[in-house]
Write a structure and sequence with these properties.
The protein has 169 residues and is of the alpha+beta class. The chain contains four helices and three strands; from the N terminus they run E-E-E-H-H-H-H. A hairpin with a 6-residue loop joins strand 2 and strand 3.
């Protein structure tokens, strides 16, 4: 929970009367440190979206939690066999592999855009899952570059996005 502190200094001649009904979302502490000292007001505001996640965050969490293991499986298969995942029944496994790469790239771009606009990455989300998915997406992207680079330098090619004769002919 992110709490912001605000310190207001007021001269002693000004009276500050706390209004309970106007500041129901703030916790205010009023202190007077001496007989002629200024009144110090410290206010802490609650964060408005503590546990509520919007639909984009929930979709990113669900997509990222499915996509990162699929990419790990794909990269392991690529490194051991020289080819990506097999197409599967009706091309479903290959489609899942392709969509997983797109989801991870989308999460990384969303994170970079948020970092550019706000100065910090994505919010943690419920139970810290969005932050975890963000980190896993960056790790997956680094692993993709490493494995694709090794594939290219060892075998001289990177398999295309569609199944070809080279791998599944």
């Amino acid at each position: 929970m992110h709490v912001s502190n605000m310190l207001l200094l007021s001269p002693t001649s000004t009276s500050v009367v706390p209004s309970r009904h106007r500041y129901d979302r703030c916790k205010a502490i009023y202190r007077k440190t001496g007989p002629h000292a200024p009144l110090k007001v410290v206010a802490m505001a609650k964060e408005t979206s503590d546990t509520k996640a919007n639909i984009a965050e929930i979709a990113a969490i669900a997509g990222g939690l499915v996509s990162t293991p699929v990419i790990a499986w794909s990269l392991y298969t690529l490194k051991t066999t020289g080819c990506g995942l097999p197409p599967g029944p009706g091309g479903s496994i290959g489609a899942l592999e392709g969509v997983s790469y797109l989801v991870v790239v989308g999460i990384v771009f969303w994170s970079l855009y948020t970092k550019y606009k706000t100065g910090s990455g994505l919010p943690n989300g419920p139970f810290g899952l969005l932050g975890a998915v963000e980190g896993l997406s960056y790790l997956s992207l680094v692993a993709v570059f490493v494995v694709f680079g090794l594939q290219y330098f060892q075998l001289g090619y990177i398999p295309g996005p569609l199944p070809g004769d080279q791998c599944f002919g």
